[in-house]
Specification:
6-stranded parallel beta sheet; alpha/beta; Rossmann fold; 2 domains
Length: 373
């Protein structure tokens, strides 16, 4: 069984499933995932679209549904006599479910670590009790787990494969295909892949972007997630003011001048392309209050965390407003030395992510554990 609760996890799960199938075409996989995992041959018990809620307040409202999903998974485990479960990130759901199924004698393998370095040692102790082996994608995580006596393997970051193998349109072809203006630089707005995130984050981003568009002669492109309808954006700001492009995030990160990027994997991806950006994040007041009391971390953006310094500005919660976003992006665009420095520092991130082949290494290690006594 493989459990991935969100879009990024579905991509990881799809890549991992493909590699497991290459090793053994007869292997049967089921679990929670999305279209990528389904395409890779995973029997989807619950689609990630049904789990697209975020934050403590939202999770509380959905507790009955979450319990039903977990109970359904338990029945599948018993029915199919499943002995191994691969959990991919998504710690709120996965660690709770791990505790529930541990008595069934299932061996739990974990790919892409929860941010234990942000949440303190409580989660590490829980992982030590529940998880057979961790497969981590950042080198500094390996030491954290090994120091606690947890079996861990640093497999490298799967983004390296994804970015290097991606079939890029040339800049000229990209601009032509999406009817962009070749005379204007692109201001990229990437507001997230959940409806809740769009509603919380996009309004301030687009207002700031419209001011910057006029002042710096830019064109605004919004990277839209495939699961988000354009009418959601249109209800916030007229579509005539910007262009929405879906499923071309890597070209956008590669060819844009500057970005306003929601905190998450996208900040790391943007960093690997050397895209100067401002990181933004906003959630419900309850979720923010609880998170602030629990999380021990000075940065939220992976680009900054891996760099070990504040390479790009971060705006959180009430700071996600049009004036603050405008001011921070303007600083970057107005100062050539600052712009170049940010770009140079971001491009060093790649050297800290290991080597290509993360999914392949993880699949081989997992397969070797399947027949473990």
């Amino acid at each position: 069984m493989i459990i991935a609760g969100e879009v990024s996890g579905d991509i990881l799960g799809g890549e991992l499933s493909e590699e497991l199938k290459r090793i053994d075409s007869e292997i049967k996989l089921c679990g929670i995932g999305g279209d990528k995992m389904k395409q890779a041959g995973v029997e989807i018990v619950c689609h990630i679209n049904r789990l697209a809620f975020l934050g403590f307040a939202e999770v509380i409202r959905h507790i009955p549904f979450v319990k039903k999903v977990q109970n359904d998974l338990v029945e599948v485990i018993k029915e199919k006599n499943i002995k191994h479960i691969i959990m991919i990130d998504y710690p709120g759901f996965n660690l709770n479910f791990a505790k529930k199924i541990k008595p069934l004698g299932v061996k739990i393998l974990y790919y892409v670590s929860p941010q234990v370095w942000a949440w303190g040692k409580g989660r590490i102790k829980k992982i030590k009790r529940l998880v057979r082996k961790m497969f981590v994608v950042f080198s500094f995580e390996e030491k954290i787990y090994s120091d606690e006596g947890i079996d861990v393997e640093f497999v490298g970051h799967p983004l390296l494969d994804r970015i290097n193998k991606y079939d890029y349109l040339t800049k000229e072809k990209f601009i032509e295909s999406y009817n962009l203006d070749p005379a204007k630089d692109i201001l990229l707005v990437l507001p997230g892949s959940r409806k809740f995130e769009i509603e919380k984050i996009f309004p301030a981003c687009v207002k700031a972007a419209l001011r910057l568009k006029k002042e710096f002669n830019l064109q605004i492109v919004v990277a839209g997630a495939s699961n988000i309808e354009e009418k959601l954006f249109a209800g916030i700001s007229p579509l005539s003011e910007y262009k929405i492009i879906k499923n071309r995030n890597y070209e956008l990160m590669k060819y844009s001048k500057v970005g306003i990027i929601k905190s998450g994997t996208s900040t790391l991806e943007s960093g690997l392309f050397g895209l100067p950006m401002v990181i933004v994040y906003k959630t419900s007041r309850l979720t923010y209050f609880i998170s602030k009391s629990l999380v021990n971390l000075k940065n939220i953006g992976m680009a900054n965390i891996i760099s070990g310094e504040n390479v790009v500005p971060e705006l959180i919660q009430h700071d996600v407003n049009p004036e603050s976003i405008y001011r921070e992006v303007k600083k970057i665009l107005s100062d050539g030395d600052l712009f170049d420095s940010i770009k140079r520092k971001l491009l060093t991130i790649k050297s800290k992510l290991g080597s290509e082949g993360a999914a392949k290494r993880t699949a081989r290690s997992i397969y070797s554990l399947l027949n473990e006594v």
